TrEMBL record:
It catalyses: an N-acyl-L-alpha-aminoacyl-tRNA + H2O = an N-acyl-L-amino acid + a tRNA + H(+). Residues 53-90 are annotated as: Disordered. This is peptidyl-tRNA hydrolase. Keywords: Hydrolase, Membrane, Transmembrane, Transmembrane helix. Residues 67-83 have a biased composition (Acidic residues). The lineage of its organism: Eukaryota, Fungi, Dikarya, Ascomycota, Pezizomycotina.
């Protein structure tokens, strides 16, 4: 049998079209695959970012709750701990038309924390104010102090003996003088004298008692 060889000639345009079609399919497939992988990575990264943000938010909330709880503990530890002196003879100082102030003398030997000091000073301020409302609600000294900004100055002393001496001097001049005693639930021993509030009173009179003390 005679073999007849016949060469098959494929037109060049067909070859080009086939090549271009194949190449296009590869490119389109690569783009689709790359986009799919990129989307997966993006979604995974987005989810991880959300979870991290949620974890940080929860951590911050827990920290804030802890700080609030600590502050509430400090405040409750100081609540109603003022031990007011027996009824004091408050001088109206009608002959002194000058600026008035309230001083808060803090014992530094107790090594109280800042939050503790703030709470104790708040109670000393309130104790002095209540003493005026109870004994001399119409005092011109109290009215001047309220009208002109309620000036307060924080000072320091180093012992309970010094604080008691300052209180005695203030009382002898007709000033309001209240010592706050702690309940002892945190930081310091029960009954500790923490802050002495003096005033409100004329600046020149209070300076006779506390003018030598340093600022807190």
């Amino acid at each position: 049998m005679a073999l007849i060889r016949q060469s098959i000639s494929i037109p060049l345009p067909w070859l080009v079209s086939a090549f271009v079609g194949t190449l296009g399919g590869v490119i389109v497939g690569g783009i689709w695959f790359g986009r799919r992988v990129s989307e997966d990575w993006y979604l995974q990264g987005l989810q991880a970012g959300r979870e991290e943000a949620k974890a940080k938010k929860k951590e911050k909330k827990d920290k804030d709750d802890s700080e609030i709880s600590s502050e509430e503990e400090e405040e409750s530890d100081s609540e109603d701990e003022g031990v007011p002196v027996e009824r004091q003879d408050l001088d109206p100082f009608t002959d002194r038309n000058e600026e008035c102030k309230l001083v808060l003398v803090v014992r530094t030997d107790l090594k109280m924390g800042q939050g503790k000091i703030a709470a104790q000073c708040g109670h000393a301020t309130l104790a002095c104010y209540k003493a005026f409302l109870r004994q001399a609600p119409d005092s011109p000294v109290l009215r001047r102090w309220e009208r002109y900004g309620q000036m307060k100055v924080a000072l320091k002393c180093t012992s309970e003996e010094d604080m008691q001496l300052l209180q005695a001097q203030a009382l002898s001049l007709g000033l309001c003088a209240q010592i706050i005693h702690d309940a002892g639930r945190t930081q310091i021993a029960a009954g500790s004298a923490t802050v002495l509030g003096i005033g409100p009173g004329p600046v020149s009179v209070i300076n006779q008692v506390t003018g030598h003390l340093k600022l807190l």
